[in-house]
């Protein structure tokens, strides 16, 4: 909104001109970095986009965190799904306000955060994770950004099946997703999308060999490559490093069996 200012408790992305970033909450405490110290209370009431200066004269921009920022800065104990993949996943699964989705393999909660952001307050995200420590970390990450109420965390192996039915989407981020295809089929509404992330071609082949028997059609396999450029108008060229392979994405649709209403 026009004229919006920083409020107590807001998350801030403090970014330097050189690209250093810090995600912090606006509160009364001092904040120290290798670039100097700030009193966060001095930022409360300032317009978003303000430039502040540390005690040693280093400038930091006060920016409103994007979904991309929140995902990249979560606390993690596992490899997260990269934002470059998250965006495509959300589009392919048709995630939007009021939607319902199951995630199996919560990890540190990067995709969980994005799903909760997109379904909105009237949507439903159910996240299954068999490791209680990972599930707890993901819950804390969602609490930090104020989205925990949109997610139901379940700590158990879903081999025995998902509790939910008629869901808009299911996403599997597991070592052996072919063991969960029947469970995903039962949870999905007819014609809806199953998404899967795996790191190796061996796993892709195994999934593709199992999809049809489980009742899924129109399989797609892809990977997303991302290359940034150095933002210098006089010497524009690619960055020396790029985020290349992070995983293979598989998508398929639920087809109804034998006239079933799914």
Architecture overview:
This protein is of the alpha/beta class and 262 residues long. It folds into 2 domains: 11-65, Vcp-like ATPase, Chain A, domain 2, CATH 3.10.330; 71-254, Rossmann fold. It is 23% helix and 29% strand. The chain has 6 helices and 15 strands. The protein has helices at 67-72, 83-92, 110-119, 132-144, 181-187, 201-214; strands spanning 11-15, 21-25, 30-33, 36-39, 51-53, 59-63, 100-104, 124-129, 151-155, 167-172, 188-198, 216-222, 229-230, 237-238, 248-254. The strands form 4 sheets. A 7-stranded mixed β-sheet has the order 9-8-7-10-11-15-12, sandwiched between helices. It has a 4-stranded antiparallel β-sheet with strand order 2-1-6-5, with no helix packed on it. Strand 13 (229-230) and strand 14 (237-238) form a beta hairpin. The longest helix is centred in the last third of the chain and has 14 residues, at 201-214. The mean pLDDT is 93.
* Strand elements, count: 15
Please state the structural category.
Answer: alpha/beta
Could you tell me the strand content as a percent range?
Answer: 25-35%
Rounded to the nearest angstrom, the distance between the terminal CA atoms is 43 Å
Number of domain units:
2
Order of helices and strands: EEEEEEHHEHEHEEHEHEEEE
Quick overview of this protein structure:
The chain is of the alpha/beta class and 262 residues long. The protein has helices at residues 67-72, 83-92, 110-119, 132-144, 181-187, 201-214; strands spanning 11-15, 21-25, 30-33, 36-39, 51-53, 59-63, 100-104, 124-129, 151-155, 167-172, 188-198, 216-222, 229-230, 237-238, 248-254.
């Amino acid at each position: 909104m026009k004229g919006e200012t920083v409020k107590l408790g807001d998350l801030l992305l403090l970014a330097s001109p050189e690209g250093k970033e810090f995600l912090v909450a606006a509160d009364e405490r001092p904040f120290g970095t290798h670039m100097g110290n700030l009193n966060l209370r001095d930022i409360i009431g300032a317009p978003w986009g303000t430039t502040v200066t540390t005690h040693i004269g280093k400038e930091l921009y006060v920016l409103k965190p994007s979904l991309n920022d929140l995902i990249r800065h979560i606390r993690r104990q596992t490899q997260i799904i990269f934002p470059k993949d998250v965006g495509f996943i959300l589009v392919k699964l048709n995630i939007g306000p009021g939607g319902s989705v199951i995630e199996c393999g919560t990890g540190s909660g990067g995709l969980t955060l994005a799903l909760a952001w997109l379904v909105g307050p009237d949507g439903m995200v159910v996240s299954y994770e068999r490791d209680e420590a990972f599930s707890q970390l993901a819950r804390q990450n969602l609490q930090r950004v104020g989205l925990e109420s949109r997610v139901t965390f379940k700590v158990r192996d879903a081999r025995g099946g998902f509790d939910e039915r008629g869901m808009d989407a299911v996403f599997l981020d597991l070592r052996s997703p072919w063991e969960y295809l029947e469970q995903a089929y039962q949870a999905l509404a007819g014609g809806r999308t199953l998404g899967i992330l795996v790191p190796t071609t061996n796993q892709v082949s195994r999934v593709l060999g199992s999809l049809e028997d489980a009742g899924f059609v129109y399989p797609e396999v892809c990977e997303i490559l991302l290359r940034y450029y150095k933002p210098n108008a006089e010497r524009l060229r690619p960055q020396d490093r790029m985020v290349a392979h992070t995983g293979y994405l598989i998508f398929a649709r639920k087809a109804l069996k034998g006239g079933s209403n799914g």
